[in-house]
Design goal:
heterotetramer; A alpha+beta; B alpha/beta; C alpha+beta; D alpha+beta; A: alpha+beta; Folate-binding fold; four-stranded antiparallel beta sheet; 2 helices; 6 strands; B: alpha/beta; FAD/NAD(P)-binding domain; D-Amino Acid Oxidase, Chain A, domain 2; eight-stranded mixed beta sheet; 18 strands; 28% helix; globular
């Protein structure tokens, strides 16, 4: 596969390490959320057959975490964003 | 129709005209007591045991494609019960014992062949871990042996002993491990279930579930609505898709696992071998092909096909272990969809919806589990309580912190 | 032997003669020959035996689709089973042997299977061999296994090397027949980067096998001229002997270049084959088409070939398969064979055309509306039996028969993304379907456009479309544009004999009928039940026939019956090629420590730790057992001072104004409160609350920390930290960089550690100036920058000292020399393990990813006062039970008794069954200090069992040992020594 | 500076030079290296300080040569800065002094082994080793890539000149891979 890195352009997916659903960005706050919320965050997945937003890490590259929108049936990639930008857009900060 | 050596000879001499269809193609009835969604190995085994062992009737198996077309038809055919953890080992040992009597039980030669499986050891730490595992296996009634380097060498003198990056230091062996002719397992269960009146309905895809007041009433299919008192889902590779019809999200991701077979060769590998340091495992089929595999591709996929890097990785592992196979040719690759659970272990459990039961999350260990999975799922469906060997396979183990994490990788499905 | 069947013409170099042997018999051929063409030219038709019935077989094709003519090529470590004679390029000295026969190819004892074939119908084995139960594994299966397989594999290492590589292009053209050449020419002249790959050693494809003209010249000459022009274009790469094996995601194609297979051995340093990963903007599949036979009784005899193959052997290789030839066809293309061979002077005795209206050739007998119904000839064709249109049968003596059932487009690569081919009744064949690999166009015969004109036109048009070219395109030369006229005939309905569909696997029309009778009617069931299409040719010639026969039986149309799809590789690929250089010692790169050269000089024993080679111990003269060395290293360290290279531990520089806050989030314990110049043991959890990693982290400045990870987790911890930094807390001011390899780091441990270090460190490192858990920048040996940490894994007064890696070797030597008065030793990982276990520190065996801080006795380190990864989920009920595993120390009651890691705990008197399983020993060593084996273990409720006696059993070795459960802190539990 | 004698990454006293056919591989032990990362929100400050200190901060995937400092981009807001070892062995300290608290600076000199490759055209060699489209990328292109399982930085100085930074501990494996590939190609 080839991932069109927002900064570096097309890069072979072999350079990346896959983590999973981009919902892993949505970590609850441990001081307010309890076990159930963390359970849902860490374990439950939509696992769609179709468009999937997912986290890839450019380990053999610039070490950016990316959010890749990819179809799990065709493997077509329609969008690639820096995970940091996605996280900020979701209101994550410090 | 009962199969026997006599029958084969008699048919041969009379032009094979007497062989009957191995299963009917029934039209779906309006309703059943039990609907099993998924005509793969686990679904067919469930139906078979429901009818045979639990005395149930009015059972249908709904299959979206052809019987045995799921992972039971696209795996590397290995059976074993060499698990580490208490939550798993009794179940897989139960399964192995069922394999040992399966062919006589369902009167079909699935070529269960216990030629032994060895897990190679390359470090002292690995030996310690395998010692822990082997002791656990024996304590659960399974068989295990720890082999020295010399013993491994006596078995397979042509492995890379002298120029290896990660030298072979021994192996954990389970002599009762082996292989089975995978398609025949599906066909044998299908035939056995059909003979006991189970309706096996092919080309019938479930498109929805009718759920009223928290209770399942039946399923919508491409061949119309079919009512049911109880519905069991055993659809490896489609678990999340099917359970979404019931509004459920599951603790799993679907990944592609590639498997490989070489051109046919005269016998060279007797049993099954795994090479952990190289992410490689191999056996040789009765037809002569080397059947081998390695890691999953590692990204969510329903595509049933993989990519080149894993093919290369697997070949590297093979060549590192067996430098003589350089000129052996890879004949065919294929990809199966694995429902990779969050701890690498399966789920056989009720759901929050009355009458709806789930069996899935087998990662790439589902084939060897087929008999026990069918039995335990039939037990759960018939008696509403888990089989004694499958009590740990619950949905709520993640909420309770009772994960069954053989590899110790945590909640990351592609690492299991 | 003379080349009795060599005829005029062809693209072989008759000025040179090549010698070769087949089954030990010597023959001659010419450059340009394949093994098959050369054998045919020598009058040899029998080249192999089939898989199940051991039927005598010769080649049916002249290409990579060959199911029959498989040989063992070469000898020794280069012996190569199942090699297709039809694509094996002849070289001088070639040695080939037939396979799957005993004792000889002409007389094969297993040929008995053919006589007993009625007992070996499809799937017979599923119905028998079940009684008595044990006989399957003891008797039946061993017999089957011995009989199975085709060629045999050597046990010797393959001596040849394999390479891999990467190529990039705008357009990849797969296949260099007329379609591919025209596509490449169009794109090449437009200045695009083009790769033209073809599996053959001569580009031109079918043009080399045909006699018609292209433009003013022969097709072969046009191909040669076009190739010559392409070779002059710097933007075009011509790759002969290169098979594109698969279409993978996003325009990545795999290709195998056979660099040296046409040589006896590869040239010095050169690979046998290269696996190319081709990154193609667009691709054109111009892979041509494959002819299919018609199934009739005994249609598998040597001498019965595909009609197009007969033509190819005559036109391209100047070889004829027999003296008296007949052609059996259902389409116009078959007629061409008769024409061409007649022109070559071969006696064409009959054309049997199943159609009523096929063209006639002057001087050749035509049997219209006729079919071949049988053949004879044990080891090679002697005659055929023809049923004429009027129903009369006639036997015709021939020794070669060309069969044409039509042509199948080579859609394979187009279906690698699971696109299903669709049936085109106009050509009675499957053509590429929808949703093929994005960016892949199909042209020419692969798309069902069979005439040469159509090939040239669609090749050109595909290049224009793929690259959106504008402007002039090459003119199309004049050439044949014959329509495809075929009337489907899949098998000849006649008699009770066997008519082969899949020749290699011996699948016959009867088998398909039996599958139908038993309701294995879906295409997949048909394939799996009969093994149709699962041989080394992947059903390239047979699949469609099997499908059509099933369609006939079920009364469904061919499209309703469906089709199977193709998967990579297009043709089988040597595993060596897929592995490349990564084998033997080069399976994975080595990582060497800074002290590696010193250690090697001193005869150290090394151990693989991931890709690292670490010193395991350093034997001294006279030490014969490893334990002697390790015990000495431990005792010397505890007595005076020892030095250990700990460079492999991961080191991560963490800087930024939020560095402290960041560490509080990623560690279970607190780091923001750590004073500058101090370090602290850190416990890192995964989000699921299990222990992920541990190590000491030092605060080197207000906004600067140095984290240490375990060797095993250096990479994964770094990845995790980047995840936290970028995905969870993107606005934290934190910067990360690995410095693992930048610093050579040594542990210096033992009562004299400080005294030794004082000899090299330039600053005051007295206990007051540099207390326990101190950390800081210092200089050594007169000003070299260094880092010093006062931390201990051994329980001794200990430091870790780091200098830039290039000075590591010198620092080690300097410490040993300057501190000679303290008799310092260098210790390895074994002694390290002994000392850490004596102290109860967790490491590999305990950090197994399945354990909590509570399990390790470190539960109090998990702060609930702050949010950190894993804090919440570590509190789940199943992970906090009082009855859970706890880390304990273990020693045998009898000091002589041996312990084994991996042994399990049992209460005294308890049976060794799972219900009584108390846990297991995670790590074990011999403690020279305590004078016995000691171990760490996870024991259920172990914290409450300290002081009790239990058993540990190792059922694998028959060991059952009484032990005492003790605190894991087995040596200096008060820690007086490390604060000394 | 100190009495300690350095070893090269290959374990020798002096740098290696290897010639295989038209290829020349030169080990560069004479380069000092440090990572420079902008502190969060401080890029402008860093850029200004860098400019006055003569430290180039090239765009993504770029290498910019200078004297004494050259640099290549490695990650968002991060660069590797190189300078002559003889004059700048203390490169981290020098850069910290120059860039102040706008940057996090870390010494990287000995984390890497540097090889300069020289031949008329390096494309045939590099296409056997990594997936960089070497012919197409411009001079001054810098990227991380993988060669024989090793993560390396590749800087294209010219069609026939490349600087590789590979993991120091695997210097022998990397050099061996280069030698074998060269022998295979040429």
């Amino acid at each position: 596969m080839i991932i069109h890195h927002p900064i570096l352009g097309p890069r072979d997916a072999q350079e990346f390490v896959y983590l999973g659903d981009a919902s892993l960005i949505d970590r609850p706050d441990g001081m307010t959320a309890g076990i159930e919320a963390f359970h849902d965050y860490l374990y439950q997945r939509s696992n769609p057959a179709g468009e999937h937003r997912e986290l890839w890490y450019h380990e053999q590259g610039d070490r950016s975490w990316l959010v890749v929108t990819r179809n799990t049936v065709t493997h077509e990639i329609t969008k690639v964003e820096l995970a940091r930008d996605v996280a900020r857009a979701k209101g994550r900060s410090k | 129709m009962r199969y026997s050596g006599f029958r084969v000879i008699a048919e041969a001499l009379t032009g094979h005209n007497g062989w009957k269809p191995v299963w009917r193609d029934p039209t779906p009835q309006a309703d059943y007591d039990y609907i099993i969604i998924g005509g793969g190995g686990h679904g067919l085994a469930t139906a078979y045991y429901l009818a045979k062992e639990f005395g149930q009737a009015r059972i249908a198996v709904l299959e979206k494609g052809y019987l045995g077309g799921g992972n039971v038809g696209r795996n590397t055919t290995i059976i074993r019960s060499n698990y580490l953890l208490d939550g798993n080992e009794p179940f897989y040992e139960f399964s192995l014992k069922l394999w040992e009597g399966l062919e006589q039980d369902f009167n079909y030669n699935a070529m269960v062949s216990q030629r032994g499986i060895i897990n190679l050891i390359h470090t002292d730490a690995q030996r310690d871990a395998f010692t822990r595992r082997g002791n656990g296996m024996i304590m659960h009634g399974a068989d295990a042996r720890l082999l020295s380097r010399d013993e491994v060498r006596a078995m397979y003198p042509w492995l890379n002993f002298d120029n290896a990056r990660f030298p072979i230091k021994g192996a954990l062996m389970q002599p009762r491990g082996g292989t089975v002719r995978h398609d025949a397992v599906a066909w044998g269960y299908a035939r056995g279930a059909d003979m006991r009146g189970v309706d096996l309905i092919q080309n019938c895809e479930v498109t929805g579930m009718r759920i009223e007041n928290g209770r399942i009433r039946g399923v919508e299919t491409t061949r119309g609505f079919i009512g049911a008192k109880k519905v069991g889902v055993a659809v490896a590779g489609s678990s999340s898709k099917v359970m979404a019809h019931a509004g459920m999200r599951l603790p799993m991701e679907s990944h592609v696992l590639q498997a490989f077979v070489s051109e046919g060769l005269k016998p060279v590998i007797e049993g099954v071998m795994t090479f952990g340091a190289g992410h490689f495992y191999v056996s040789q089929s009765d037809k002569g092909g080397l059947v081998f595999g390695g890691d999953i591709d590692g990204y969510n996929s329903y595509a049933q096909r993989g990519n080149l890097p894993v093919i290369e990785d697997v070949a590297e592992g093979g060549m590192a272990l067996m430098p003589a196979i350089g000129r052996v040719r890879l004949l065919r690759t294929w990809g199966g969809i694995m429902d990779m659970s969050m701890d690498g272990s399966p789920i056989i459990d009720k759901t929050g919806i009355e009458g709806l039961y789930f069996n899935g999350g087998w990662c790439y260990g589902g084939f060897k589990a087929t008999p026990a999975s069918g039995w335990a799922f039939a037990h759960l469906l018939a008696k509403d309580e888990p089989h004694k060997t499958a009590t740990a396979y619950r949905f709520d183990r993640f909420l309770k912190g009772l994960m069954i994490d053989e590899k110790g990788q945590g909640a990351q499905p592609n690492l299991h | 032997m003379t080349q009795s069947h060599r005829i005029a013409g062809g693209q072989i170099d008759r000025t040179k003669t090549l010698r070769f042997t087949f089954d030990g018999v010597r023959y001659q051929g010419h450059p340009g020959d394949t093994l098959a063409s050369a054998l045919l030219a020598n009058g040899v038709r029998l080249m192999g035996r089939s898989f199940k019935y051991h039927r005598p077989r010769g080649p049916i094709s002249a290409g990579s689709e060959e199911p029959n003519a498989l040989v063992e090529l070469r000898t020794g470590g280069r012996q190569e089973p199942n090699t297709r004679a039809t694509v094996t390029e002849l070289y001088d000295g070639l040695e080939a042997n037939s396979q799957n026969r005993w004792p000889s190819l002409r007389f094969d004892a297993m040929g008995i299977n053919d006589k007993l074939s009625t007992f070996f119908a499809a799937g017979f084995y599923y119905k028998t061999f079940m009684w008595p139960k044990s006989f399957w594994e003891k008797l039946y299966e061993p017999i089957i296994r011995r009989a199975a397989g085709l060629g045999s594999v050597t046990r010797e290492e393959d001596p040849d090397a394999y390479d891999k590589g990467f190529l990039h292009c705008d357009l990849l053209v797969i296949g260099a027949g007329p379609t591919g050449l025209m596509a490449a020419l169009t794109a090449g002249r437009a200045g695009k980067r083009v790769i033209l790959a073809d599996e053959d050693f001569r580009l031109g494809g079918r043009l080399n096998a045909e006699t018609f003209s292209v433009g003013q010249t022969s097709g072969a000459d046009w191909a040669a001229a076009t190739v010559a022009e392409l070779a002059t274009l710097p933007n075009v790469r011509l790759m002969t002997r290169t098979t594109v094996i698969g279409a993978f995601d996003h325009g990545i194609y795999g290709a195998v270049e056979r660099v040296s297979d046409h040589l006896a051995v590869p040239a010095q340093g050169k690979p046998r084959q290269v696996l190319w990963r081709i990154y193609a903007g667009k691709a054109i599949l111009a892979a041509g088409a494959t002819e299919r036979p018609v199934a009739f009784e005994n249609n598998d005899r040597p001498g019965i070939l595909l009609a197009g193959a007969l033509r190819a052997y005559a036109n391209r290789w100047g070889a004829k398969a027999g003296e008296r030839l007949a052609v059996f066809t259902n389409n116009d293309d078959g007629i061409r064979t008769a024409l061409d061979l007649q022109a070559k002077g071969v006696d064409v005795v009959a054309v049997i055309d199943s159609r009523e209206g096929g063209d006639l050739i002057p001087g050749v007998r035509h049997l219209r509306g006729a079919e071949v119904i049988d053949s004879s000839g044990k080891l090679g064709l002697k005659s055929i039996t023809v049923r004429q249109a009027n129903g009369r049968s006639e036997t015709i003596a021939v020794d070669a028969l060309g069969v044409s059932g039509g042509w199948n487009p080579n859609v394979n690569i187009h279906s690698h993304h699971r696109s299903r081919p669709i049936y085109d009744p106009a050509i009675a064949a499957f053509v590429p379907g929808q949703d093929g690999p994005p960016g892949l166009l199909v042209a020419g015969a692969a798309a069902g456009a069979f005439s040469t004109h159509a090939a040239l036109r669609t090749g050109r048009d595909a290049a224009i479309a793929a690259l959106e070219l504008i402007g002039a395109a090459p003119d199309l030369p004049e050439t044949e544009d014959a329509p495809t006229r075929v009337t489907p005939l899949w098998h000849v309905a006649h008699g009770k004999g066997r008519a082969w569909i899949d020749q290699q696997n011996d699948v016959t029309v009867k088998d398909v009928k039996l599958a139908h009778q038993e309701n294995f009617t879906s295409v997949e069931h048909l394939k799996r039940y009969t093994t149709l299409g699962m041989a080394t040719d992947q059903g390239k010639t047979g699949n469609v026939i099997g499908l059509a026969v099933m369609a006939e039986l079920t009364g469904r149309s061919i499209p309703e019956t469906g089709t199977t799809i193709y998967r990579p590789p297009y043709t089988p690929v040597a595993l060596g090629t897929l592995a490349g250089r990564s084998r033997g010692k080069k399976f994975k790169p080595f990582r060497l420590t800074p002290s590696h050269h010193w250690a090697k000089e001193h005869g150290a024993i090394f151990v693989e730790v991931g890709n690292w080679l670490r010193t395991q111990w350093v034997p001294k003269a006279g030490e014969t057992e490893w334990r002697q060395s390790v015990d000495r290293e431990v005792l010397a360290t505890r007595k005076s001072v020892g030095i250990c290279d700990v460079t492999t531990l991961g080191k991560i520089d963490i800087q930024g104004t939020d560095a402290g806050a960041f560490l509080d989030r990623v560690y279970a314990n607190t780091f923001s409160s750590l004073a500058v110049g101090k370090c602290r043991y850190g416990l890192m959890l995964r989000e699921d609350g299990m222990v992920f990693d541990d190590g000491t982290t030092a605060r080197m400045g207000t906004n600067e920390y140095v984290m240490t990870t375990t060797t095993a987790n250096a990479v994964t911890v770094f990845r995790h930290l980047e995840f936290c930094r970028q995905c969870l807390w993107p606005d934290m001011d934190v910067q990360l960089i690995s410095t693992t390899e930048a610093w050579a780091q040594f542990s210096v441990a033992g009562p004299n550690a400080r005294k030794l270090l004082e000899k090299v460190v330039d600053q005051d490192i007295s206990d007051a100036a540099f207390p326990y858990m101190g950390a800081g920048n210092v200089t050594v040996c007169g000003g070299l920058r260094a880092r010093l940490f006062r931390i201990s894994f051994s329980g001794e007064l200990a430091y870790e000292i780091a200098v830039p890696t290039r000075y590591g070797d010198a620092l080690l030597r300097e410490m040993l020399a300057k501190g000679a008065e303290f008799d310092p030793i260098v210790y390895g990982t074994e002694a390290l393990g002994v000392m850490r276990i004596e102290k109860g520190h967790v490491a590999g065996g305990e950090l197994n990813g399945q354990s909590t801080a509570l399990n390790m006795g470190l539960g109090k380190m998990v702060s609930k006062k702050k949010d950190a990864i894993g804090m919440v989920l570590s509190q789940r009920e199943g992970m906090t039970a009082e009855t859970g595993y706890r880390l304990v120390g273990v020693k045998p009651v009898d000091p002589q008794a041996k312990l084994t890691a991996g042994s399990h705990f049992l209460e005294k008197g308890a049976a060794p069954v799972a219900a009584n399983d108390g846990g297991w020993l995670t790590s074990k060593v011999y403690s020279p200090h305590l004078g016995c084996d000691i171990a760490l273990g996870y024991l259920k409720a172990g914290d409450k069992k300290i002081g009790q006696r239990m058993r540990i059993v190792n059922l694998l070795a028959g060991l059952d040992t009484e032990v005492e459960i003790i605190s894991p802190h087995m040596f200096d539990p008060e820690g007086e020594r490390l604060r000394g | 500076m100190a009495s300690l004698q350095a070893l090269t990454a290959l374990g020798a006293r002096g740098p290696a030079v290897v010639e295989i056919g038209p290829l020349r591989i030169t080990e560069r032990a004479d380069l000092a290296l440090a990572s420079v990362a902008a502190r969060r929100g401080r890029f402008t400050d860093l850029a200004a300080a860098a400019q006055s200190a003569g430290v180039p901060l090239p765009e993504a995937a770029g290498y910019q040569a200078g004297a004494p400092y050259s640099a290549f981009w490695t990650a968002p807001d991060m660069w590797f800065v190189e300078a002559p070892f003889a004059s700048h062995e203390l490169i981290a300290g020098l850069l910290k002094a120059a860039l102040g608290d706008a940057a996090s600076v870390t010494e990287q000199t000995d984390a890497w082994v540097a090889f300069d490759l020289a031949a008329a055209d390096l494309t045939p060699l590099l296409e056997r080793l990594c997936n960089v489209d070497f012919r197409s990328v411009p001079k001054g292109y810098a990227t991380r890539t993988v060669m024989e399982h090793l993560g390396v930085y590749l800087v294209k100085l010219d069609q026939g000149a490349v600087r590789l930074y590979g993991p120091r501990s695997s210097a022998q494996s990397l050099l061996h891979a280069l030698e074998v590939a060269a022998a295979s190609v040429w």
